[in-house]
Batch of 3 targets.
Target 1
Amino acid sequence: MKLSVGLKIANSLSLTPQLQQAIRLLQLSSLELEQEIQVQLDSNPLLEKIEDQDTSEELSILEIESPDKDLTTELNADHLPDDLPVDTDWDDVYTHQPTSLGSAEFEEREDNRQGHQSLQAHLLEQVNLLNFSKIDQLIAHCIIDSIDDKGFLEVDLTEITASVQHLLQSISYEDEVEHDEVLVVLKHIQRLDPIGVGSRNLAECLLVQLEILSEDVPCRNDAIKLMQHYELLISNELPKLIKQTGLNQDQLRKAVDLLKTLKPHPGLDFEDKESNYQIPDVVVMKKNDCWQVMLNPDVMPKLRINSFYANMIKRADQSEDNQYLRNNMLEAKNFIKSIDERHKTLLKVATCIVEHQRMFLEIGAEGMKPLVLRDIAEEVELHESTVSRVTTNKYMLTPRGLFELKYFFSSHVGTTSGGEASSTAIRAKIKKLIAEENTRKPLSDNAIAVLLKADGIDVARRTVAKYRESLHIASSSERKVLI
């Protein structure tokens, strides 16, 4: 075999460090981008963040326009001017951060949120006020530790009895704890605030709340009878329920109305309701009958090259310090360019999505059009993977609410006219039909499919069932209300 040297020309694609950085920044959320920018600011001395630029510029302009004005001279003048110079500017003491929807009223607000108390802590405070023995207090602590966030007891009483016995044996207590002792303590806990906490199921929770009510409450006894046969109530077997309870249909209806006033999950009042709010990356507003798309200025970082360090760089100097400044300046420029490209790409994709989903912005989810990543990628001349990165963990604020960009992409179903309908729009139509149905005669999946076909959407019964289950809507037999 003969060895030889040859020249070959070929095209190849290589990911430079700058391109890798741009791709990585493209898929970051606004919070992750803020963290990445802070890391770069801490590590690169030539990169700096622009802050309070407008205020400093305004102050410098004022100093240039009136460098020789003196307050004493103005006050001693024969005629006082309408506008007197002052020793401070309003912008010095009142600053605000611009937002996408207007200006904030105050720069800083006092944090007046109240401390959150857990359900367990609330119950323990009440147990300490009861005249319990040491053993009963230990049993109460074991029961309270086993209560979930909804207020239900999630373990069996035998497990609690075994746990209490094990703890007593660890301190050399020889007497045995009876099951009835645990049950008595549980009954006391169920009557603490909130009423019904520590119940083992929904029926017991509602029954405890009914027993606490005064006997003068109308339909109280009828509701207690009803809960004694709650299996028939859940299965909606009205004839058997009337026969077993001895109540007529009107009494059953009033008893059910009383049950609806009770709390099915007493522990939810102590749930930490502090929400994690998402910051929109894109804001869509309608002005002069035209939908405008803009980037949220609150999440747009304002970066620049530090002029002081940049002026220290010398062209012909090859020293280590000068080379360090050169490298950091190049990295800072590439980082700023990558951030700018990220925002341009995001705005381009978001604008294209709004062009496709105008009907959604006008009438809601029923106007959603079928859309896939390929459609957007072809229009903005990007690869599908790039569009996927742009739309991941990015949010758009619209008059209809806050949505992730991925929400506007959906599969399609054929229509009777030969067109296409979005699966999101079909789900919205199914939800609307069920909301308007007669609860005594709820629509079956087949009936919904017929109504959708009359509206021009050709879907099978199984498709309707799949969409209904994705909306967490029960079947027609479970939605039926007889009383």
Target 2
Amino acid sequence: MHLIRNCFHPVLIGSGMMILLFVGCSNDQPKAIKEEKFIVTDTLLSSLLIDTVKSSNSTSEITLTGKIVPDEDKMVKIYPMVSGLVQDVHVHSGDVVGKGQLLATMRSAEVAGYAKEAISSEAELKTSLREMQVTEDLYNSGMASQRDLEVAKANYEKAKAEDRRSKAVLHINPSKGDLNYMVKSPISGFVIEKKVTNNMQVRTDNAENMFAIADLSSMWALVNVYESDISKVKAGDNVKITTLSYPDKVFSGKIDKVYNTIDPENKVVKARVKINNPDLILKPEMFANVEISSVGDDTMPVIDTQCLIFDNNQYYVLVIEGKEKVKIKPVTIARKTENKAYIRSGVKSGDHLIASRQVFIYESLK
């Protein structure tokens, strides 16, 4: 019996331990954890960037191309006023010239005729003046009629007018000697076109200019505006221009004219921008990239793009409504620029938006 008791004792103890273990395990069953709703506290709000929705006319950015050309208001093309043979060309393309500087000389028979007319008209003027004075003396002594005096005065006035005309023609066609016609620059600037050479024959009916002189301290950018963008571009729009030669330098200006004709080949309308060029780094015929900021007539709420949250093909913002109350609101964007978004619906002017850590807060509130 003693042996039997010793054999059964471990079994009883083991059974008891199993019972205790079972009871202990049943007491450790997992309990349901209650989720707490995320709340944006005052402390959290004070650490965030807050942006206020403003109201503004919508702005669109249009990127176009164009080229740099001389300012036509500061450029002259020089055409031959007389026919003749070019003798000496004193300048070349790219040269700097001053006002009145000699560009070339020509041998011209027409100039000799102008000089002869000027000499003849001056002599005729002196003769008619003398005749008028003599007739006036005779009239005062009763030896000439009133009609004789009037004829003498009329002849003098005609001679005076012819003398003024001949000298004006000679002044427009300056000459050195009887045959040498001088081509001078009427303004200071750069020679941007030279189309004559020594011993070249030129005629007054030639449609091509001899020289073109331009003051390059200001330039024009002619912008190619495609038909689809014509309605978006108008005079007064702000423009930023960059060139291939100076990609990091931005030239600012405004559109001062939109032309009314369409290029039949390229189907574009030209818009003109005047650019100051004091350092003369812009050169004629440079290619230009043009960014136009076009301001619309419609007024819309505008926000900073950093306030936007994009999720599942929809834009959202976090609007603060009252103390510690943040709401997720979907917004419809009418137009976006580099750092501004114009909102068609979803917010109004004066709303306060969260502009930092908004993705984290959005995910927590969602």
Target 3
Amino acid sequence: MRRRHFEAFHPLCPHCLRSGAGEWHLVLAHVMAEQDDDILSGILQCANPGCLHEYPILGGIPLIVPELRRTLGERAVELLLRDDLDPLLESLLGDAVGPDSWFDSIRLTASTYGWDGYADLDPTEEVVPQGPQPGAVRRCLARLLELSPGATGGLVIDTGCGAGRTSFDLAERHPDALVLGCDVNLGMLRLARRAGEGRMRYPRRRIGLVYDRREFALCLPGAERVDFWACDATSLPFAPGRAGLVAALNLFDCVPDPRQLLAALAAHLAPGGSLLLATPYDWATRATPVTAWVGGHSQRGGTAGAAEPLLRALIAAQPGLTIRGEDPGFPWQTRLHDRSAVAYRAHLLAAVKQP
């Protein structure tokens, strides 16, 4: 966790925010390891004497989430898993643990996001003319920025940042901005931090349980102005109304309450700030209960189950938020392995908060 980002974003205790106890800042209670301005391990503590909740900093990533116990119970292995195993030994373990296991799920996610985010910088990556091309999420971001000309920087929050390449792109696009990538997937944040340190190492899935270790150096412009924190996008631990830009790419249909997410993101925008939103409405009940879906059901209603008019109405209902640009069918491909990819048509919306 960079001290510069900690001071600029000045995080609040998410437990106090959620419980209605008010806006209490977090303080650095303990620093166990630090390099330059980067705190590698430590403990943040709520300044509220009636709370004193603590939040760990592990591997440079602060975990500032309302339900820390639950998050660690579900995802701690992603942050603590060894990444120095010999590729052959890792292959044997993958075969032994088997498909559909937690180990294979972590590797598959790292393969999908690592490939799309960074394969364009991999000197060993072969171009497949008929196949998907890396950088789909970056092309989506570039299109959203076209739809929102003049989007300001300042403090930039990239929610659901995944492997972090969009966070680095936002830093390059806004040379005066501090960019904070937020996600609850600790494995992806670990990969994003590694990219910011100038190296990439991820398991690239070839087919089935066969993965190839990819490792190469990186040099990403603006990396020194990017940091990555574990935060819940629906309960961001910041004072509202301060961000010049908030991005949420392929996150809207991956949270338990999309309406709460939209309200939270809009609340964090400063006057004149921009919201960049992309979603394919690929609902899954394991992430979002059907009653919370925006479209995709209740086709007997006035919108006949369509999602797009509902999302537009939800954005228009946010105080001061106005749609600035829209692309209803932007192509987005996700690679699964050498012979499989998923193609989406994402709905892109750029909105601005009126001064």
